[in-house]
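Open question from group meeting: does this chain pack into something compact, or does most of it stay loose? Before anyone orders reagents, we agreed to write out a predicted structure and look at it together. Recording both the input and the output here so the notebook holds the full record.
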Amino acid sequence: MTINVTKIIRKTMGWCPNAAFANKNEEINMVSYEGKYTDKIKGMGFRGFLSVLHLVFGAWLIFTALRVLANPMIFPWWYMDINLFSSGILLVVGLSSMMIFLNFAKSANVHRILALVNIALLIAFLLYLGQFLVSSEFSYSVFDKPYMGYSFGLVTLLLFTFIITIPSALTFFSKPSGERNKKFLKAILLVLIITFASVGVYYLYLNKQKDSMLTAELGNKGEYKLYKIDPGSASYYDDAHSYFLDSAGDTTGHHISLDTFQAMQFLQKRDTGKVISWWDYELEIKAAGKEPVISYASKAIKSTIARPASLYDKFEPDEKVADVSMFFTTSSEDVAKGIAEKYGANSVYLPKQRINDLIEVMMFAANPAIMQKPGSISRADNFDETIKPTMANKLITGADLKNFDKIFENKDVIIYELK
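Structure tokens returned:
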């Protein structure tokens, strides 16, 4: 019998052969475990990484588009146009990205064609929304903008479009492999057609719902539409402003009250010249068959417009808008009379609920050099010095005026006539 003196000495000192064996196996297993996942990630390659990127972006864009489409706001209708068109593009791009992730067509050439379609759609997305930029650039994060009627500024729109184009751009410029399969291309084209057709059907459904609310066609040619909004419809609603006045060819429509509608009917029956008012209310004046002195803002106060549309906006001359602003902000009744006569206006249309909110903008338009930006007046602190002396305040409060007679008043509107 051979005695292993070395083993006896090592056991005496606490050495355990089983423990050493277990540690060795654990070390082997650990290396194997780490290598398993590391190699798997490394084995994905560039195309595998792109596939995952398409999954993430595709799911995000589909969710974004469906979330916007699920919350329709029919009025103003141009807002609905933006939501449907933009969401339709994002939905198609998202579905196309999911096709690439699912390897719907195994050919890299087909993937590149899909990526090219996505890029073309996103360029259309950029150009289209570039016509409806907002003035306030970063009031919300870039990724909140789609849920707010795609209310991008130029910088946020460029950033958003660049981000969502990344997967398609990488796919398009990747090295092609495989052959094109015409059957898959036809299937992809069919999916795109079905998607756009579905959005189109949804658009027609909402348009039919909108038409069912039409109450009256106003103006000299019936080009101004008045809609009666009922509770529960796919639109903003409140009891005080249950009508919506709109026009396809003018500035943004807005909700109005029954009192405002009655004021429009009164004005329609009057034999007047031009009507002086702020441009926000030009729709009401035109719907009554009269001509407002100004129908839009000037370029000098473009920053005060919430969402100017660069494609079709027709700005008023700076001088004319400044004069109308001076009419309402001057403390001199004679100055106001001179401005009205200058533009052939013998009626004044005043919304009682909002006029004080507009005075800051009017003061800015009347003298941009002094009023560096809207908001520089604190109405609470400077009412007596800045607002109380103005013609707007005098007209609203019914002060004794030598040149203007009040001919109509209800809860929401006051109408004056030049003596």
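Observations to bring back to the group:
The chain has 13 helices and eight strands.
Residues 139 and 145 are 10 Å apart (CA to CA).
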